[in-house]
Amino acid sequence: MQNQGFLQTKEIFAIVLMLVAIKAADSTPSLFAQKAQNGFWLIPIVSFVVIFPSFLLMIYLLKRFRDKNLMELIESILGKTIGKLISIIIFLFAFSTLTLDSRNYVEQIKVLYFPESPTIFIFFIFIGVSFFGAKKGIEVIGYTSWIALPIIKISFFTLIWLVLGSMVYERIFPIFGSGLPVILSEGVKKAAIFAELFFLLIAYKAAKEEAMFRKGAVVASIIAFLEIIAFYFIYITVFDYNSVEKIAFPFHDIAQYVQFGQFFTNIETLFMVFWLFAAYLKFIVFLYLIAWMFGTIFHIKNFEPLLLPLAYLVIIAGLLPFNSIYNEFVLRENLLMIMSPFFILLPFMLWFIALWKGELKR
């Protein structure tokens, strides 16, 4: 089913957490540690402080321009031609993010659990499962996210509790790592680690009431931010920056610290199951959102048939980087640096133009 406005606050809340909070368990910490060293856990704080006001301003504009999603709002304020151009750019950003992130997760699965399997084979299975999940529609996705959320969060926070004894708090010093200017600069340049918040605005009309969407999205954004900080802090106190910058998948490495006695070995595999479940939900949501974006831009009301060709394009584009290092430390880093100023400034530009045109007075 397509958007019928059936989602409630709890389902919006769960979807946002699935999209954003899982960055606590991917390779983003390794990317941040390359320049900020042991101060990398402070970068998301700067990023959130910089980009969250822009997200709140976009929410405000959607509230003032009733019955519009992200793309419709942009076209309403900027006009059809410029608005459609900006919307296409956002779609390309979302598609590129989905492509690079999915390659990242496929590499994690391959390296950690199926080293002998071809990357293309794992990629087809991973995106194929996401495609079949996305076919169920936004209402089923929202309901499934809400049902799965407690299980996933309990498993993740159980992991935190079990590694508390391995934390060495002195490893956070010097607090600013390679320096405060580096932390501030990287925080601004990488603010787009929260870009999914903007992509989700295409589903603004999916909630029963607009207030439900606003409440669920804002509260979940803050909680996701706190979760990311908590996990990054644990990474730096368990490993130290020399280790983190060399560890591609810190979440899985930290799971190896968990012990349940001599009779329970390879317990990290249990956490891998919940991590993989969360990853699938993220990409199910993401794939549905980009199809929704494309359909809105080109006025395709029944956009669900677009899911299959878009899923195929994600696989083809995701296989282009010749290795995971180039994908993560070149392509993904450059994408974040391009998207960050765009999403920081876009809401203010829209607000100023709407104010100048007198559309905020109505």
- The helix fraction, in percent, is over 70%
Low-confidence stretches: none
**The level-1 CATH class:** Mainly Alpha
**What's the overall average pLDDT, rounded?**
90
InterPro entries: Spore_GerAB
Protein name: Spore germination protein
Membrane topology: Multi-pass membrane protein
Family: Belongs to the amino acid-polyamine-organocation (APC) superfamily. Spore germination protein (SGP) (TC 2.A.3.9) family.
Quick structural gist:
With 362 residues, the protein is an all-alpha fold.
Per-chain topology:
Layout: H1 9-20, H2 28-36, H3 43-64, H4 70-78, H5 80-113, H6 119-134, H7 138-163, H8 180-189, H9 196-199, H10 210-238, H11 241-244, H12 250-255, H13 268-297, H14 307-318, H15 324-356
From the structure above, extract its key features:
Spore germination protein, membrane, transmembrane, 15 helices, globular, 0% strand, 362 residues, single chain, Amino acid/polyamine transporter I, mainly alpha, Spore_GerAB
